[in-house]
Amino acid sequence: MADPELEAIRQRRMQELMAQHSMGNPDSEQQKSQDEAKREADEQRQMMLSQILTSEARARLARIALVKPEKARGVEDVILRAAQMGQIAEKVSEERLISLLEQFNTQTTKETKVTIRRRPSVLDNE
């Protein structure tokens, strides 16, 4: 085969693959729009938090999010709800954030219970 023929075959195959990809996956547009909406919501959330929290408090919350993202998200939710209800009049300092974290910890602590059951052995006479 000559090089122009090989190149033409490659081009056709590439076009076929592109057509299959776009037609075979109609949810990709919907997925892209959902991802875009989620990204915009996260950006708006971060912007609101930057207006509510001091830089030290944001740094502490970011460090918490690295270790326990669900806890950081919960505290962010509490702060945003309080701000929307007008309960926060000034920026939240690091000390205030620490007290919110302590309150959040007491509300969401899970009690761990360990039960040890011994399996009966063949040598047991019971």
From TrEMBL:
Residues 13-45 are annotated as: Disordered. It comes from the Eukaryota. GO terms for cellular component: cytosol; nucleus. Residues 29-45 have a biased composition (Basic and acidic residues). One of its GO terms (molecular function) is DNA binding. Belongs to the PDCD5 family. This is Programmed cell death protein 5.
